[in-house]
Write a structure and sequence with these properties.
This protein is α/β, with parallel strands linked by helices and 353 residues long. It contains ten helices and 13 strands. The model has no long low-confidence stretch (mean pLDDT 95).
Length: 353
């Protein structure tokens, strides 16, 4: 049989690979950077009050109630807020809206692995800039002509963050490009640059409810930017999906925002567990980077990451292993409950004897 001609028109792309989903609930799942604690009790109240009849109607097309709540929280206007189906959807929309130059966009070589997937899918030229041997991003690398810049802060999978000085210098030296700061983990770090949206009309800041607000299953993400940039993102969204957020996602997200005390307490709990775990891992011979996220990025001084990954997996503990250059001897370990982290540390102590 001759080769079918239509096969020549199929896309050839290497997709993003998410963390493995366990087949049973006995697995300690520390490989997807999910929050180990449930969402706010106010979210539970919303879910318990829903009726099946409500599902027959379309949700709000622009998530206006959620946009207003987000705007109020960060001191902006609704016109400065975009909402989408998780920050992945928000970022993909931003890539479509802003990266249409013949110049390459710039981002670190070790970073969120969805960026090159979007670039390949959308035919966006790109160039990666190498982080140094300590995985630190060099600001000087992002001062050349470009079609846009994307910097995660804190970065993933390295867990390292930068402060206001870095972000301002980045913006000052890229005034002719859109600069996206991906803040998926910012609530666990020292700095968010959302306030700078008021000063820089080329800045887009993306965030998510999946990590610090325990709503990964609802898929809620957002972007903050000038009204002009948000209007372009809305136009892209309305060109392929007018209803990215379902009504339950919108309502639970608003409920989460109304419970600031619970949000802060949960974040502090994760950070405290993170720092204790990092210290105990260092005592076992690990080099653990100073994390500003809800995960740790670590390598052992003697035992390979793949061997540790395999041993933990055989003992019912999933962590993330990246078989990629420069980071193939590191593990990314999500912060779970204190009990889950203690069990993981027990297994690590066994293999590190």
């Amino acid at each position: 049989m001759s080769e079918k001609l239509w096969r020549k028109n199929l896309i050839n792309i290497e997709p993003y690979v998410a963390g493995e989903q366990p087949k049973n609930d006995k697995i300690i799942k520390l490989n997807a950077n999910e929050n180990p604690y449930p969402p706010s009790p106010k979210v539970k109240a919303i879910l318990e009050g829903k009726t099946i009849a409500e599902l027959r109607k379309y949700p709000s097309a622009d998530a206006s109630v959620l946009r207003a709540a987000l705007a109020e929280r960060v001191g902006l206007k609704s016109e400065n807020v975009f909402c989408g189906n998780g920050s992945d959807d928000v970022l993909a929309t931003a890539f479509r809206a802003f990266f249409n130059s013949d110049k390459p966009i710039l981002y670190p070589d070790i970073t969120y692995s969805f960026y090159p997937v979007w670039c390949e899918l959308l035919k966006i030229p790109y160039k990666t800039k190498s982080v140094d041997d300590d995985f630190v991003i060099n600001i000087e690398d992002f001062k050349e002509p470009n079609g846009g810049v994307v910097i995660p802060n804190p970065n993933a999978p390295t867990s390292l963050g930068v402060g206001e000085k870095f972000i301002r210098e980045l913006l000052e030296n890229n005034q002719d490009s859109i600069v996206i700061i991906d803040e998926a983990y910012a609530d666990f770090g020292r700095y968010s640059c959302v306030e700078l949206v008021k000063e820089y009309d080329n800045l887009v800041v993306t965030q998510t409810f999946s990590k610090s607000r325990s709503l990964a299953g609802m898929r809620v993400g957002m972007a903050f930017a000038s009204a002009e940039l948000i209007s372009y993102m809305q136009a892209v969204k309305d060109s392929y999906n007018s209803y990215p957020l379902d009504q339950i996602a919108i309502e639970t997200a608003v409920a989460s925002l109304s419970d600031e005390d619970y949000f802060k307490a949960t974040v502090e709990k994760v950070k405290a567990t993170r720092d204790r775990t990092a210290e105990k891992m260092r005592e076992l011979g690990f080099n653990v980077l100073d994390s500003e996220t809800n995960f740790l990025f670590a390598q052992h001084e003697k035992i390979s990451a793949k061997e540790i990954f395999t041993y933990l997996r055989e003992n019912g503990i999933f962590v993330r292993y990246f078989n990629k250059p420069r980071i193939d001897n590191f593990l990314r370990i999500t912060i779970g409950t204190d009990e889950e982290m203690e069990l993981m540390l027990e297994k690590l102590s066994e293999i590190c004897k």
